[in-house]
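Morning!

This is the sequence you dropped in the shared folder:
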Amino acid sequence: MNSKITRRCLLLAGAAAVVASKAMSAITAAKPNIVVVYADDLGYGDLSCYGSTTIRTPNIDRLAAQGTRFVNAHSPSATCTPSRYALMTGEYPWRTSGTQILPGDAAALIRPGRYTLPAMLKQAGYNTGFVGKWHLGLGDGKVDWNGEIGPGPLDIGFDHGFFMPATLDRVPTVLIDGRRVANLDQNDPIAVSYGAKMGDEPTGAKHPEMLRYGADPEHSNTIVNGISRIGYMTGGKSARWNDENLSDLLLEKAVDFISAKRAAPFFLYYAVNEPHVPRAPNPRFVGKSGMGPRGDAILQLDWTVGELMRALDRLGIAKNTMVVFSSDNGPILFDGYEDRAVELAGAHRPAGPFSSGKYSILEGGTRVPMITAWPGHVRPGHVSSALVDHVDMIASLAALVGQQLPHASAVDSFDMLAPLLGQTHRGREYVVEDTKLMVTTGATVASSGSRILAIRAGDWKLIRRSVEPQQFHGNPIGTRPENQLYNLADDPGETRNLAASQPRRAAQLAAWLDRIEREGRSRP
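The structure's back. Tokens below.
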């Protein structure tokens, strides 16, 4: 009797596997449009679908209801440039030098010929577009802002690009259309410096009366639109963006791309700015959150996501479009500008139940909101506990579109397509988390050479020993001169270090992390 039951179970399991295989083959053959919406400094607790009761995000909530919402998703790093590098390349950022928060005039970090997410999708027959924040460097070390700009996004797999060179708080405050600055008057050429002051444009340090809000010394250089920035620039008056209207313009460009390319599969990397500093949302959102510019910027982000989804519906392509929504790292309240984000946060917890946020190796630095949706394919209304990481995007989407990854590329990217579709709670066995210490020299803030690494495996997390406890812009970095071991199921705030009471587990995780680092790759 037992043997009959066993044979029947095996037959049923085999049949189920065949059905699942056929279903996955059908999905792969479908080649949907793909849109990745990448928010900037958005925390796990900043959305109402993740439990916030202090701010409402109905459009992102609706996206979550239509798809799968992840409660154990991670950005590859606790800062922006490294996470974006890993998303594009499938390689942990700490394996490569120079993967830190880049200045606005940095050389291209991802070089032409590199195998990347857009290059892979282009090989699969996709039209590839990018709109929004780049911050992965441009050119070969000295950009001519008045001529053709490259290498850049168009040299690593994107067919189309309309983007900011770096961040909202860095010069030059211009947008690049393809390879040239948009709306540039050649009679008013742009010059940029991240060293000595240049030109005679007013700075925040010398003219605080011109500012809409104050800033720390790092953010007190050239003033654009009443906001002082990092770095100095002159010229390019006609090309400078307007902060209040920037999100609307980027949305328009994103919709233009999907409208123009809707007849064939397309990939859009839509890197929105919210809620990164400086926060200057459109007047229609000002004062609506009750939490000042940061809260209002989150409302603007929510509206933007809603408008994008409505555009997909209007164009009749929503059912054939997979949308992935997430954030490049955890949240920050004060990040250089005195916009009252700390004062007005009240009971709001931007990192939810986790500690710290941006810049931190603690869980709030990389535990981020993440949602996938694709009608008829991604499980709707599903909450997934699968451990996933943005470094896996290239391998997962390669599996979706039937591409094989070269062995020497995307060395840390794993196929997580099944959890992305909501088919399983089984995700990664582990993730490696990363940040760099920040150092201040006079008015300049930069990443130091000190990498801080941690490994997450199941409920356990080990933070490698580094230096004495430090903070940056109010967020504890999570450093200690001894190893730290936490059980996140019991202690999501990482308040009880168990390394001394569980030395064997701590030693095993430390050795595992050492091996991953030493071997130079983690994908088989």
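Headline: The CA atoms of residues 131 and 162 lie 5 Å apart.

More detail when I'm at my desk.
O.
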